[in-house]
Predict the 3D structure of the following.
Amino acid sequence: MNGMNSNLSSRQLCVVAATSVGFVVSQLDVSIVNVALASIAHDLGASVASLQWTVDAYALAFAALMLLAGSLGDRLGARRLFVGGLAVFAFASLACAFSRDAAQLIAARAIQGVGAAAMLPNSLALLNAACGHDRRVRARAVGLWTAAGAVSIAAGPIVGGALIAAFGWRSIFWVNLPICAAGVAATLAWVDESPSHGRGDGIDVSGQALAIVALTALVGAVIEARPLGLSHPLVIGAIAIAVTATAAFIAVERRSRAPMLPLALFGERTFSAAVLFGIAVNFTYYGSVFVLSLYLQRVLGQTPLQTGLAFLPLTGGFLLSNLASGPVVARFGSRGPMIAGALLDAAGFAALAFVDAHTPTVALLLPFLLIPSGMGVAVPAMTTALLGTVGQRRAGTASAVLNTARQAAGAMGVAAFGALAGHAGGAAASAQIVDAVRWSAAASVAMLACAAVIARGVRGSTAADGKEAANRPRRAVK
């Protein structure tokens, strides 16, 4: 392709539809669970820390295993991993629906994360393969892929609120089953298996184990720091384990013949900037949504359905901005949309800094529109920029690195901002939740301002066609 025609063929549109299912169910589950937190707490007697673990068990498994899943997809075939991920996700959704206590639910959520980890990087690898080397076509396809996720994010709170009102919180997990079944059927019918790149170097078991230990220990330390105290031996021990495991992980990856995380990827400036940008965006969004869910239900006294309706602009705003992002990135490149999106996102969080215990829901409309509008412009641009730095042989691994960093950041955001919400009861809890919204908003503004600066490191040229990755020397992707 010469990069001048950015229209997708009917075959490419079918691939976009099939691969988008993985993104749809992974995002739908996040938004549905957020509106169910208060109901889960009431039914299972779950504490705030247990609610954090309910959200973060999914995010941790998602983050910790995505690199392995992306690498296995590159070696064994992305379609095989993608279909397997859909099946695991469906099974885990059943387990969530039948959970009898918080521990069972947390374990089932972790298994859901395993399925999501297999789906997400390999869906992008299949999408990238279908678009060849055309940067403009890839930008359009990624825009549609993220827009599909935006639809599920937008629908999640409404569907979740309605299901909870009618059938209880357990029903929110049943909705995943027909979606996963449709995804398997569409993938087998429409998507060709990407070429596998099997190698005899084996799997990086040590790196995978260290990644799981480091992420779990770090998030656990942040979640438990508030109820136990920073000086508690378990918190101190978890921090020490996280630091040690991280150092060991880097050492192992440097020496490994087949590293789970190819550190040489970070030698590419655009790749590094995209990953850091994604960390800031996910940390702020997922951490704030967790706190806002508690704020709407425990401070403003809204029902799950009312919370879902209140969240509609916060989630639905992604749709139009995602759809607009593809053509904008195809025409102007990734740098400008990333910077503009980060600043728009920051403006939305700045508007949340003034909420109190009596803020009317209508006053949340402006920030709830600005935040997703900014993210919706920036995230497809970020993803397109990253995929443009590698060839198809490393597309699964590269997308896994980006989404691992994003999911880990989201888990940390829930842990950090959730800790601000406190563990008190009654009026004291309401005051702490209001303070948590304000402090998390201020922190988000600062992080997103830094993200806008980081985005300046992304290549801004639009003249080159999509062959830039294929023709670039392989220095950064060994």
